[in-house]
Amino acid sequence: MGSDRVRHDCSVLGSGWTGTNPLVFPLLKTGGRTFGFWKSRIDLSLASDLNSYALGIQMFGHFLFMLNILVWVTCLSLPLQGAPNPLRVGIIINERLPSIDEEQIKDILRHARKEANQVYSLNIEYTALTTHTMAGYFEPYREIVLNKHKIFQYALNIDGASIMDLQRALLIEYGQDSLESLLPFVRSALPELGDRNFTNKIDLMGALAELQVQKLSQLKAILLEDGQPLLGGDNLHQFMLWWFYLREQEDFDVIITNQLLASAETFHPEIHGAARGGVATGFAGPSYNRYGGAALVSLFPIISSLDFFESGRGGNYSSEEVVESASAILLHELLHLLRHEKHQWSHPHCIMNPTPGFRYREWAADIRKNGPCLEWHDPSPFLQRTFAQFRVFP
Ligand SMILES: [Zn+2]
Ligand SMILES: [Zn+2]
Predict the structure, then answer these.
(1) How far is the CA of 371 from the centre of ligand 2 (A)?
(2) Could you state, in order of their start, the residue ranges of all structural domains in the chain?
(3) What is the number of the ligand closest to the CA of 4?
(4) How far is CA 331 from CA 118, 220, 242, 272, in A?
(5) How crowded is residue 192: how many other Cβ atoms within 10 Å of its Cβ?
(6) CA atoms of 216 and 221, how far apart (whole Å)
């Protein structure tokens, strides 16, 4: 376990850590006060017995002060797991789409928990697990979400998706990132770019927006076995719908679904999603709970045997590969949710460097074989701010 991981623990646990260790600040205060008080007495008194008594107290002050430093050094040098983070899990099944059985989903959850504890010093526990159908759980929220949040002010209609609107939104989202920091990821996620040269972000985001709309059109043309389009009129594929579903519901901190999320929107667009044609395999968004947010994992791109996904992944996955891929995605989302970690586009073997394209299996295997990443991970100011606004103290 490298020092990077330790720094995460201290910064993440931050106020929580000091709050749960009432020893630290009283010690600092007591040591400082005692030291200061008796120092002034020593200066005033010439009596040697009082002086030695005062020195004794002074030494005690030093001792408390050093003890306090020791406690901090311990924090900086030992991985701390902190109290477990309780997570309520909801499995939401769209019966129109292929899925995996509940036991396999439990395997994904177990796998993610074990790795979170052992590799990332992130203590999580599942306190509830319930399975619902899409219609049974989210249908009542649909009207609220559509009317209150007006998702179509952000969601772009696939047919009429304006490449320029997407390009502009991507440019704003990645305003702080340099072309050099993004290019290697974009190239590995989009082999179809070949050796095309990019000298500025405007062209790069233009190419991404164009490819996203192109791939979305391919998805839109797909019909399922029941003759209905994969991206149906129910809009369940819209990322914005799920962003607000997550926000409205209060029952889950983690949602695992077989629903496909594939769309284009001007809100919070991501380059890895754009490279897949607007397909999101997961996200962490705001929600009224103890974390101020919830994490969602969409299994569809991992388990679908449609050509679009199968060729993107390089074949269908075995059940073990599904569990290994989906649990790494879940862990990535939990690090967004619980540590507010942001993406690290240039880190090798890093769980916060998103999956390039649909190669989940290779991405997860590389992190497990060559990781974990020991580089410094900045928190995301966007996630910090958003989750702070939604946090509800239990
Ligand atoms: Zn992410
Ligand atoms: Zn990293």
Answers:
(1) 9
(2) 21-77, 85-390
(3) 2
(4) 12, 30, 19, 17
(5) 12
(6) 9
Tens of pLDDT, residue by residue over 143-186, are 888 888 877 777 777 666 689 999 999 999 999 999 999 999 99
User: What is this structure's pTM?
Assistant: 0.79
Distance 56 CA to ligand 1 centre (A): 56
Task: Copy the structure tokens of residue 37.
Answer: 């008080």
Q: CA 299, CA 364: separation in Å to the nearest integer?
A: 15
Q: Which residue has the tokens 């809009």?
A: 235
Q: Which residue matches tokens 């052992």?
A: 118
How far is Cα 117 from Cα 137, in angstroms, rounded to an integer? 31
Ligand 1 center–CA 46 separation, angstroms: 67
CA of 153 to the centre of ligand 1 (A): 23
CA of 7 to the centre of ligand 1 (A): 20
**Residue 342 Cα to ligand 1 middle (Å):** 7
Low-confidence ranges of the chain (pLDDT < 70): 1-81, 158-161
The rounded Å distance from CA 331 to ligand 1 centre is: 10
Where are the extended beta strands (E) located within 75-215?
85-93, 124-133, 155-156
Site of tokens 């649990």 = 327
